[in-house]
Amino acid sequence: MTNIKIPLLLLLSFSFLIVSCERKFEYVSKPSSNPLLIEGEWLDSSDTIHGNGISIRKNKIAFFKNMHFTADQIHDYYIIDSIYRKNGNDQKIGEYLIIKEGKDSSIFEIEIRNKSSIILLNSKKDKLMYNFWKRIKFTPK
What we know:
The structure is a single chain. By secondary structure, the chain is mainly beta. Helices cover 14% and strands 50% of the residues. It has 1 helix and 9 strands, in the order αβββββββββ. Strand 3 and strand 4 (60-64) form a beta hairpin.
């Protein structure tokens, strides 16, 4: 019986050692250090003939069709970073565009964003690709 107790005791001690050495990690979200998209009109790369895309000014965004959108289609947006934190070290693992639409929100993963392209992934992981066109100055009517 003593022969069984010693290996069992060693096994329990070793298991405790492994568990106590385990590093803690967590996933957190925080506002992006680069919170704004480049202002201007971005055309949908899959449909440049019809003039569909997005218009961005400061922290406002509007999806347009045939180069047209209305005031009620303009929404606030913000960008958050998804962070993997382990033992106090942060690693950015994703970036998300959140568009506030009244009480609802639309969330897109940002795959790429630079001066010439924005690639978003919707909840189905479909790619929405936009290419920078130009910045139009709007004048009130």
